[in-house]
Design goal:
mainly alpha; 9 helices; single chain
Length: about 200
């Protein structure tokens, strides 16, 4: 499954360029667990091939985050927690993930959007409590962009460096091979846990 997701990301990026990048990052920021840890390093690889620009990748990626976050923010603001509880299961949104974002936002307030955009997991779901808390939209989008840009830049930079060294450092191929296996195992385990948890709650 992880290989299928990665293959789809590569196909979208290859065909759509910056537009594909914006779309993928929008999906990830709309609380759909599409890993930016795969999207952005591949964009960085395209930078190493001269097909993209590093700073444009970071900027377009951050704008994509704003687009997707606008959807999640609206769901939180106008639908509230009941809408999330009802529909979140269809995008594999776990209560644990939302509770983590809720606690983070409750503790730090509006700056949580800025900081949360640079943290795994939290960055994907932080727009929901921001919407529920009716954070001002201008400040929300400003913080989202400022917090997302360094995340996009850092991951794309890693991909660029690896792309430049791919042919000259053979052991990178082995590392990525085992990384693919590990990711696949984690995805299978997560899906299995999700199905088991749903059945356990229904039984209870």
């Amino acid at each position: 499954m992880a290989g299928m997701v990665a293959g789809w990301i590569v196909a979208v990026m290859t065909a759509g360029g910056y537009g594909g990048l914006a779309l993928l990052m929008a999906v990830e920021s709309a609380c759909i667990p599409l890993p930016s840890e795969i999207i952005l390093p591949f964009a960085g690889y395209l930078v190493s091939q001269g097909r993209m620009n590093l700073f444009l990748v970071a900027t377009v990626g951050a704008l994509g985050c704003n687009l997707g976050s606008a959807v999640a923010y609206a769901v939180g603001r106008y639908g509230g927690r009941p809408a999330i509880d009802r529909w979140g299961k269809y995008v594999l949104l776990r209560h644990h993930d939302l509770d983590l974002a809720d606690r983070f936002f409750a503790r730090f307030g509006a700056p949580a959007v800025l900081v949360g955009r640079m943290l795994p997991v939290v960055r994907t779901f932080i727009a929901l409590p921001a919407g529920i808390g009716e954070m001002g939209q201008v400040r929300f989008h400003l913080y989202t962009f400022i917090g997302s840009w360094p995340w996009c830049f850092a991951l794309a930079y890693v991909g660029m460096v690896l792309g430049e060294r791919w042919a000259s450092v053979p052991w990178l191929h082995t590392v990525f091979h085992y990384a693919d296996i590990a990711i696949a195992a984690l995805v299978v385990a997560a899906v299995g846990w999700f199905v088991w948890e749903r059945r356990r709650r229904r039984s209870a």
